[in-house]
């Protein structure tokens, strides 16, 4: 019985991990990122005074983009994020998080 329970827990944990990592599509995020490159660089490296995005945790990037979209004080970023869907935001975050 203990082995069966252990096997169920292991299988369930793989399922949860897969869902957590499947939120964004890096290839789609790369396509969407073209508009970001003017200020954040073509590889997310940042162009002063704008921050680098490459390698940041995707959850942090999602939060920042959603904050800008909801009107956080930055009129440029608010304007750029206004038309992004939640999936676009997830895709961008996954793409930038995947960069070094």
Q: What report would you give on this structure?
A:
The protein is mainly α and 100 residues long. The longest helix is centred in the first third of the chain and has 20 residues, at 2-21. It has six helices and no strands. Helix 4 packs across helix 5 (75-81). It is globular. The termini are far apart. It has helices spanning 2-21, 26-32, 37-40, 58-69, 75-81, 86-98.
Classify the secondary structure makeup into a structural class. mainly alpha
Number of strands: 0
Helix content: 55-70%
Oligomer category:
single chain
* Anisotropy-based shape: globular
Low-confidence stretches: 4-20
Q: Compute the average pLDDT.
A: 84
How many strands, which pairing sense, and closed or not: the largest β-sheet? none
Q: Which value, in Å, is the CA radius of gyration? A: 17 Å
Count of DSSP-assigned helices? 6
Termini separation comes to 45 Å
State which percent range the strand residues make up. under 5%
Pattern of helices and strands: HHHHHH
């Amino acid at each position: 019985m203990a082995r069966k329970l252990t096997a169920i827990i292991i299988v369930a944990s793989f399922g949860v991990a897969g869902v957590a990592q499947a939120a964004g599509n890096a290839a789609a995020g790369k396509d969407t990122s073209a508009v970001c490159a003017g200020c954040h660089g073509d590889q997310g490296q940042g162009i002063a005074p704008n921050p680098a995005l490459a390698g940041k945790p995707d959850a942090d990037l999602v939060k920042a983009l959603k904050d800008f979209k909801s009107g956080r004080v930055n009129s440029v970023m608010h304007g750029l994020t206004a038309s992004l869907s939640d999936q676009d935001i997830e895709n961008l975050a996954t793409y930038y998080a995947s960069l070094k």
